[in-house]
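Batch manifest line 339
LIGAND: KG4
JOB: complex structure
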Amino acid sequence: MLVLGIESSCDETGMALYRADAGGVLLAHALHSQVCMHADYGGVVPELASRDHIRRLVPLLRQVLSDSDCSLTMLDAVAYTQGPGLAGALLVGAAFAEALATALGVPTVPVHHLEGHLLSPLLSKRRPQFPFVALLVSGGHSQLMRVAGVGEYELLGETLDDAAGEAFDKTAKLLGLGYPGGAALALLAERGRPGLVRLPRPMLQSGDLDFSFSGLKTAVLTRVNELGKISDQQRADIAHGFQEAIVEVLVSKALRAVELSGLRQLVVAGGVGANRELRRQLDAHAARTRIAVFYPELEFCTDNGAMIALAGALRLQAGDSGKPPGAFAVRPRWPLTGA
Ligand code: KG4
Ligand code: ZN
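JOB STATUS: finished
ARTIFACT:
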């Protein structure tokens, strides 16, 4: 079974071809990031994002077909991100997918973007088995889920305000780094001196599995304002203190979720899952205990088409027959537990 996957929920256009038979293999994937285009505005401009998706879809489709030596007539289904995300951006991908599937006479599989992230470690050679606990930390979401199988997701905890990636991005902005600044902030943190900037660990002792990150960003703002003129080393020290605080909270809550669930596998997905310090601390814990931690390949941590093709294929394999192509709707706001 050959599934085309299309991602267009925010500022990345992703396209991929996944063959579901024989254990599953990703035949090709291609991505265009709009990060440079939005950087001048300090954030994603929805209308520009939609227009750029329109420009990229056909070239990316041609690329994955040629890279995999496949033709359109070989497709069995077209999976695409139905939500959550920017309404206009989602509409572009959905309209393209539904039109293509109508022309080919194959079903579509509308996919939840977070389901794509959750399942993305299954694209790796070393894969988790169901059930597992997932820490989903992206620019828009921070959630802990119990994943019993494809489509079986139980929310264990989530952020009450900013997402982890959003906290990274807003703090990066405060420190004068570009947008999205998560990766740049993490890099700067490596030059920071440990122990010099101690920031709060929001909700670390709350007793539940929820997060809150907006206070952390405010604490950074207060520190920056107190300092006035700020040297490069001081910026690195603040970045270090910020990363230390947020990683401690994420690690502590994720391990607590694993413990409470009685499971032994933790999956870390979403853009913040690329963070090296987060991985280092979780791996160190895994080495000391019987918990196994799984990550997507770095290129599949942030938004991509491969995870959407995979999620679509797994849904079909699990008995979902997809949807007849044609009429469609997008779901800019859509809780995963209702998917
Ligand atoms: O999953 P993703 O591509 O988009 C959403 O679905 O939201 O995640 C993007 C987020 C951004 O906030 C970005 O700053 C953050 O992931 N990010 C990082 C790192 N790389 C990307 N945050 C911390 N450390 C990183 N190395
Ligand atoms: Zn995402």
